[in-house]
Amino acid sequence: MHSSLMRAQKLFELVDLGPSQTCLITDLSDIRWLTGFSGSHAWLVVHHQELFLLTDGRYVEQARAEIEAHCAVVEVIECRTLAAMQKATETLTQGSATVQFQDSQLTYQNFLALQAELSSTLMPCDSSIKFLRRQKDDKEIQLIESACLIADHALQQCVHLLSTGVTENEVRDELEYAMRRLGADGPSYDTIVASGPTNSARPHHHPTGTKIENGHTVIIDVGALVAGYHSDMTRSFVVGPMSSEQAEWYEAVRAAQQAGVEACRPGVQVSEIDAACRRVLSQAGLEQYFTHGTGHGVGLVIHEEPFINSSCQAILQPGDVVTVEPGLYRGGFGGFRVEDLVVITEHGCRILNTSPKDPTCPPLQLTT
Amino acid sequence: MHSSLMRAQKLFELVDLGPSQTCLITDLSDIRWLTGFSGSHAWLVVHHQELFLLTDGRYVEQARAEIEAHCAVVEVIECRTLAAMQKATETLTQGSATVQFQDSQLTYQNFLALQAELSSTLMPCDSSIKFLRRQKDDKEIQLIESACLIADHALQQCVHLLSTGVTENEVRDELEYAMRRLGADGPSYDTIVASGPTNSARPHHHPTGTKIENGHTVIIDVGALVAGYHSDMTRSFVVGPMSSEQAEWYEAVRAAQQAGVEACRPGVQVSEIDAACRRVLSQAGLEQYFTHGTGHGVGLVIHEEPFINSSCQAILQPGDVVTVEPGLYRGGFGGFRVEDLVVITEHGCRILNTSPKDPTCPPLQLTT
User: Using an 8 Å Cβ cutoff, are A27 and A105 in contact?
Assistant: First the structure.
């Protein structure tokens, strides 16, 4: 059975819709996963083994083409306005006792307006699709791996710039341009280039005109987007000779990241991945400088389930694609982060990135 | 008074909060407009002439720096989790009879969780900030104009590519790279490059590997992002000699767009802008091929109020920044769209774009 039909079948089983129940999906990533539709405006009504995509005139032709390419079976219904979508939902759900809806995706305003239109009662059903989407199939893993490869190659093309006096913005521009030239649909998220004692100490720094100088630590967090699927990778560098403290921090982060990756296998609770990273940093006396979560799932959304932190009880399963990304940050000194994207396999995990983890900035090497 | 304080004052006046009322703002663009904070996670509690920004550890330092640069007066409160944000909101709103909230920004799930935490009653108050944000001040208009200028220059640098056998993707890549090199923080939205009888007939086409060929119509819809402010512009081209039908369609769109711009002045209902465009297309017997709205406001959000269509009753006022963008589309033939961004002035409007409206593709001209 084609994967799109399998996905729909899993959905039908999960929500277990009898003739008197329907389900309304409003999360666009869920809709893409089920139907292939990549536009910015649609609702999907799931009605007893049938799927109906409601979208506006801009997207009708595109929706039909994408659904066909996805080998999905979905009827497309054109709705010119939000009110028309509400009315179409009522028509399709008449006679249902309840309509399950995604309460983390629908605004309070739209909930009230939709409920006013419907003769059935809206009932929250949130996490079902996110759960289904966690286990990636071979095609999805291939797309994510392609996205990783593009970011790896782009970084390889641009890393020599770091020692040439460029700015954070310029490195970001070249990385994103390189990813596009390598076939990416775009960056997977806002590329981070964070340099020096202040900026690299900010985990989510936005690139600036700051010039990258000798002695700076530089964090580069970059991913590519391919057919809706994301990659996510971080490497850290020191421009020029490393101080002993920089070397100590870098080695601690690298060892912590390796310990995290080594802990990734089916059956493990994700909090154990977090603990594996923290143990190494704690032994180095640096855990207090690790101020964010250890990782997250990646797929049609850059941050998706499972979220890897000390309190999440999710269990890793084959097909999970997650980041492992410990980092250390201290304002006035700088920061380091190392991140790989891994796919959980039958017995362990496989790293999808290929970028080396050497923190020195290589000079430009011309291919001969 | 500095504009940020004026904005806060306008908000206090608008929501008219006595000591027993508070307001929770969750729209990130509204928060940026009021405080300067540009991060991806925050709530703003407005409490009787005081502002409190709740955000997580990633953003505390950045929030304080941006608030200071914005000359705003806002206390930053660190909240590690969503639950902590809910608790902080309860602490700050205790004793309020009601807490006004943005019902088009809060999900149903978050509404229920927040209401469960609060001793006060949540009351929808949606459109107030959007209304305040419509009238741009001089600084905002300057930023939007800078963003327009960048897109104009990027298009000027890239338009010669159209007759060189490149693909839609390649033109998009070069445009976005050029905008970055010219100082943009990024593209203002997904750049559209739509060529030929099929793709250019799709108003929201996503660029592909389609090669741009002789005889193709090409629509380029491109904008830049500068300090959070967007620009938005469309030009249409024909590669090689124009057919008489292409020339007829292009002239109709261009005349319709000019009529729309000429109708832009204070006191005019936006539906009249739409009508002005449609009259020209109707006289040319082509109105049936104009399948989308005529325009929209642009600012911290690429599509914001007022929305220019046949049913919107908003009245243009000085400081409104809106697009005027009629287009014609017919599958198998192609499409044309011409779009300018204009700012409403005291007596009329001023076009913020400078790109010429010549549909022929100029060859590469080297500056001497």
Answer: yes
